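Researcher: Please translate sequence to structure tokens.
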Amino acid sequence: MSESAGGQSRQGQAAQINPHVWALPLTFFLTAPNGAAIPRLVHAYIVSGARERMLVDCGTAGSLPDVVAGIEAAGFAPERISRLLATHEHADHMGGALLLTRRYGWPVAAHTAAMRWLEDAELQRRERPLPNFDTLMAGSVTVERPLNEGDALDLGGCEARALHTPGHSAGSLSLVIQPDGVIISADALISAVAAPFYDDPAAVRASVEKLRRELASGGRMVSSHAATPSWVTGQALDDTLALVGRMEGAVRQAQAEVGAGDEDALTRRALDLAGWERQAVTPVTRITVRAHLAQL
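Model: Translation complete:
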């Protein structure tokens, strides 16, 4: 999950960003260590071709009314959506999937590496615990269309090609929408969020270079947690690499200073050294630090 700075969205918002793609802003809430509810923003997307249309991500369990209203605001009937595609397995992007698939019968597509957590929400809760996970994730869903690198979904005059961009999660996908060249990068760009949440630093770097090649080929990119569905420049790729490098150096120094015996002390010191003094030590920040330790 990307616990990003986000704003409030109003029910029924939909922004058309090109002839085939609409962005739906969805507000959800995280529980802070002190119990406060913190609003966050994530975008779902509609991709529409001449024959089929699909929803990319769907927000949390509480997002269902906004998703339905957003689809209708874009001029579509939810019953005519042909597929729900997950950019990745986290609850802020797919927490409402069970509710929506039960209501509308949408088949789910996701990268094969995302299936483990999507099809077993309890396993995700245990391995990536969040204070309000059960309010974010309605439950498990079956992935009926597994996707791998290069797989394409033909919507009729419009194609969505899967680009495996792990790092933030093992099953993270970006989508390249052709003929438009729109790249839905989801959470692949760590610089687009407010803290360093990823589980494989080397994979983040490789995914950034993959996205850089797509941009060099004329693509234009959007990110799921930007304050508006705005275009992301190549600078965001450089910022991601700089952030991962800064965190790597901070973990290395923190390990030298405090050792690895007290994980919370090590994580706290690494966050401070990397410039995240106000970021709490949480399960997801621990995962980031563990990932760097494994690659030092």
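Researcher: Any highlights?
Model: The mean pLDDT is 91.
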